[in-house]
Queue: 4 jobs
Job 1
Amino acid sequence: MKKNSYIGISFIVLLFGIWTVKELSERFKENDLKVLTKVPSFELTDQNGKKISDKSYLGKVYVVEFFFANCLTICPIMNKNLVQVQDEFYGNLDFGIASITIDPEHDTPAFLKEHAKTLGVKHPNWHFLTGNSDYIMNLANKGFYIQAGKDAKAQGGFGHSGQFALIDKDGNIRSRKDKFGNPILFYDGLEQAGIDALKEDIKLLLEE
């Protein structure tokens, strides 16, 4: 083989080595998702009558929403979008969802089980959670800082946010940053852009 051929092959090998190192460094470098705070402690009952707490989700990346089953405004959109997220990560047992009702008087475990069935919920780590009303309202507003409450003027009698919280495997609330470098805090559960961002960041956290 001619000398020039050896040089050519060596150059290709060198380029391949550089590309491989770069690819690995990009894959394993720390992501830019901001740690906001620890997830508040909670314990509620799911659609199967099982006690589920924040500790049940340790080791998993999960999404938290506050909703109610009889909501006819934003909740159906939020639930539908979470089904999309579920389908993206179906089969991954390191992923989960916590859907917490703000209407526990109506949303019993049995009712939530039917609601989950209607939605097409199939991921074993998607829990629809219910419990004491005051406890849940305190958890939403003072634990997660996601607005929720009774509102006689609102359709269905409750007003609440359409935002999702993203939690990492260690129980930290995480978020991406906006173009100014500020954390967005929560993910828009109503627009596709917010869902796309959520799915991208779930993937990042699953790789940690």
Job 2
Amino acid sequence: MDLLAHIDNYCERTDPSLWSEPLNALSNLAFLIAAAVLWRQAHGNTRQTELRCLATLIGLIGVCSGLFHFFGTVWGMILDVAGIALFILVYIQRYLRQLARCPQWACWLGVAVFVAADRAIAKLGSFGLNGSEGYLLPGVTLMAFAVWSRWHSPDATRWLGAASLVFVVSFSLRTLDMALCAHWPFGTHFAWHLLNALVLYCCARGLAGRR
């Protein structure tokens, strides 16, 4: 694997130069803003440490994704995927523990099942979603968490419900990025970043909800 090889998967990128994706790169500031707001709001919360851990992971996503869209290389893509995956797995484990009140073994089993399902879906190949296939399972999982919370953790419902609705829009925009190039040369991937920062913020706030 050539870690320095350039990747051109987005409408905005037209060449391998560092500043070929200005909107895709700068829109990652939304993750840093979401992380900063969450960090501040965590003060005094009974789950302060947990929320600040999630805030740190959201900030990490912003940094890793920013590096990927700035450099447009394989190593940047690996960092980008790793940052997102880390947040998803940590969030699933903490949701199962804090809101679903599962025992520790069940929480880690849930994470293992998610990883296995994700790998199985990946083997099915492309569904014609412009590389968004990997976000189908996280999206469905988020919606399942929102539905479960409706009966078991009402305070979390509004946050996870909002996150689910915004995710549907952001997922659609990510999928349409290349298809709209002829009509909108900047693409729509930057909007995926902006909306996903809101999604992750809402997810973290949902975890702070009382049972």
Job 3
Amino acid sequence: MPPKKNKTKKTTKKNPEKSENELEAKYRRSVLDIAVLQDRIALQCESVIKVQSDRVDLRRRVRDMEQKLQHTRQDHRDVNSDLSRQYKTMQTELTSKVKRLETEASQLKEELGLCQEELRREKREREQVEREKDATISDLQHKLDNMETDCEKVLHETLDSLTVQLSLARRGWEDKSTTIHQNYKEVLSEFGLNALDI
């Protein structure tokens, strides 16, 4: 009987370990996903900062060019018109790029929030599995203790029974031994011998 109990105990241990391994794998994947998202956000933030810095530099350059153009406006009207057009185009492109990067950063923040929520949910599930596993182990330990008590009880009853049987057998042997000794004494006395002398 005990080997069967051990087998069921092993199989009940394998299933929680398997689910625990799956939860740990999910947890690791979630942690990696969060790290990747954080890296992407950091890169996007650096890009936004660089774009804003470029924008400030471009505005300064444009101001410098406008000052130069004021002195040479008469001679360089075409250049001034072209630079103005380029400035507006670049400003439009930079504005749209900044908006696009801000939208991307917002989406990444949302994804990060979803990943964090999923991570919290998986942690709760893992804690639930841990509680169930502990309850199962406790239940099995209780059953094992009960079996141990029952086995001890059966063993004590068996030993008590054997003690009684041995006691009865001993009395029987002692009675037989006394009868045999008495017979030998009588036989010896018939031959005129004393049993104590022998």
Job 4
Amino acid sequence: MLFRCLTSLAVCAMLDVPQAAVAQASGAYPSRPITLVVPYPPGGAADQFARSLGHALGERLGQSVVVENRPGANGNIGSAYVARRQAADGYTLLLGSASTLTINPNLYADIGYDPVKDLQPITLTHQMPNVLVVSSKTPYKRVADVVRAAKANPGHIAFGSAGYGNTMHLAGVLFQRQAGIKLVHVPYKGGAPALMDVLAGTIPMMFNNLPALVPLKDSDKVRLLAVADTKRSPVLPKVPTFAEEGLPGVVSVVWNGILVRRGTPQAIVDRLNWEMGSILKSPAFRQPLEAQGYEVLSSTPGEFEALIKKDLANMHKLTKEAGMKIN
């Protein structure tokens, strides 16, 4: 199923190594501030999670962790910056996602980096389902209303996304395929500006990450029609799944994780994995984020790398079947 990260893989044991031994093996690291690159604009769900994680990591490491947004080309610009232009020393981290690590390599002729050869996984951090949100200025109150209108006006109703090939876009592609409808895709440079236009009624709808929509659950400007997951979200208990709305094949759950440039010393990789794993397992860190709609995860570097390779193959099949390619 699209972008689904199996819980049995994602929620897993950290390295069974004493903390003191990991810290000693990594020497004086870190001796200066660390940069966490988010390859998307500020304000989105991924950016918000990164800022929470960066703050907690800085406290554990005793050095500031500065979040730096480098958006563009559906996340390729920021990802290539870390993968090819920064030293393999653990001082530049990357927030990677299903989009930048498994979808983009299958869409673009050249993304500027190889997600397997150039990047070293540290840990999975979280996942979140996409949700169909419509402007309250539209007449759509159920998924069936959208489907009915789209069938009556094929190729005339628009939906926004964070960019061509983004998981929000592919969720829309999957929705169209399962419902037998044709919509018009309007790509934006990030999910936040697309959502602003849905709120304003400039575009009728979009798929967006659940945490970006939780603050709007009681808004009179939008309606949340369905969650693209196999189960309802505990933070949106009144919003049905697509299966409940008659479209069981619409499942779009997006995973994210932290990586560094390949070649970073193993001791630093182990240190970062240990420290982040401790944060991600902490109830004090998890609970506020889970209340916002994030499903907090953790993993070993090897498990994260196995997921990337597996989903690279899955996305190759999906994008080829959909005829999607960017030169």
